[in-house]
Structures are given as C-alpha cells and as structure tokens.
Amino acid sequence: MIREYILLFASWAIDLYFYAMILYILSSWIPPLYNTRFVRFLAEISEPYLGFFRRIIPPIGILDISPIFALFVYKFLAMLLLRGLYTVLYAW
Predict the structure, then answer these.
(1) Interval 2-13: pLDDT, tens
(2) How distant is the alpha carbon of residue 60 from its chain centre?
(3) InterPro entries under this entry (predicted)?
(4) Phi/psi zone of residue 61: left (φ > 0), alpha (ψ -120 to 50 degrees), beta?
C-alpha cells in the first residue's frame, strides 16, 4: 500500500516539474507574461535544467531548439527513474 503511494508521489512530482517547464517555455513567447511573479517562479525552478541544454545546443538564428531536447531527455530519465524506483520498491 505504501509502495503505491511512493510511486504515485514520485510520478506526480516528476510530471509537475515537466509541466512547469512547458509553461515556462510557452510563456517566453508572450512578453507581457514574462514579468509576472508566477513566470519568474517558473524561471527559477526551470532555468537550472534548461540552461544546461542552452549551453550545449546553441540557438539556430532566433530559434532555440534546446528545450525540445531538454524535455525529451527529462522524460527519458524520468521513465528510467520510475522504473528503477518500481524495481527497488517491489524487490523487498
């Protein structure tokens, strides 16, 4: 019973961060939103991860494709993490 709650919480936390990054990326297209407190909060939690990919993958002209790769890698790592957590929890 507790194992299911641990997996559910981990999955929920991973998804919450994923959607926070998506909201931050989409809000960058709307300049008036960028100065709101909510978007600044999203920037504070998303930029450490997204900034890593921005340093590796430079923009192509005005198009920044690094968030696409960042989200892809994040979902892949999240899947590995949840599978590993499932294996550890149910190996008891």
Answers:
(1) 999 999 999 999
(2) 22
(3) CCB3/YggT
(4) left
